């Protein structure tokens, strides 16, 4: 567990993982009182949702079979759950594989 600083941004961090709309809501929640813990998780969630939609379109263009689409959705769901769990535990862990990239690519989210 981190300090009270993480607890102050916990709500926005958790909301960020609940659909892309939740990420947008969390972004605006974090605008008044910039919280780095919340910003970290907003960047992670934003990256996950963008990846979900971009790869979802890509997967749907090339296949109608569930053998390819099911593992894709399972992979994204596992990453979102990982982020949600770390946010609820007040930890700043990047999601596996893509997390460090999200922190660099979406550094404009503060």
Condensed summary:
The chain has 5 helices and no strands. It has helices at residues 4-16, 19-32, 36-62, 66-88, 99-105. It is elongated.
Describe the structure in your own words.
The chain has 110 residues and is mainly α. Helices cover 76% and strands 0% of the residues. It has helices at residues 4-16, 19-32, 36-62, 66-88, 99-105.
Query: What is the H/E order?
Result: HHHHH
Radius of gyration, rounded? Answer: 14 Å
Largest sheet entry: none
Report the average pLDDT across residues. Answer: 85
Quaternary state of the chains:
single chain
Secondary-structure content class: mainly alpha
The number of helices is 5
Shape: elongated
Helix content: over 70%
Gap from first CA to last CA: 22 Å
**Number of DSSP-assigned strands:** 0
Runs with pLDDT <50, length 5+? none
Name the beta content range.
under 5%
Key terms for this structure?
mainly alpha, 5 helices, 76% helix, elongated, 110 residues
Could you outline the blueprint of secondary structure elements for this entry?
Blueprint: H1 4-16, H2 19-32, H3 36-62, H4 66-88, H5 99-105
């Amino acid at each position: 567990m981190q300090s009270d600083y993480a607890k102050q941004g916990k709500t926005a961090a958790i909301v960020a993982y609940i659909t892309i709309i939740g990420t947008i809501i969390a972004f605006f929640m974090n605008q008044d009182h910039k919280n780095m813990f919340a910003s970290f998780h907003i960047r992670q969630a934003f990256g996950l949702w963008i990846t979900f939609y971009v790869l979802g379109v890509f997967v749907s263009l090339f296949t109608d079979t569930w053998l390819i689409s099911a593992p894709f959705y399972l992979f994204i769901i596992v990453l979102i759950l990982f982020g949600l769990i770390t946010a609820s535990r007040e930890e700043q862990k990047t999601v596996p594989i893509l997390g460090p990239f999200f922190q660099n690519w979406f550094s404009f989210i503060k």
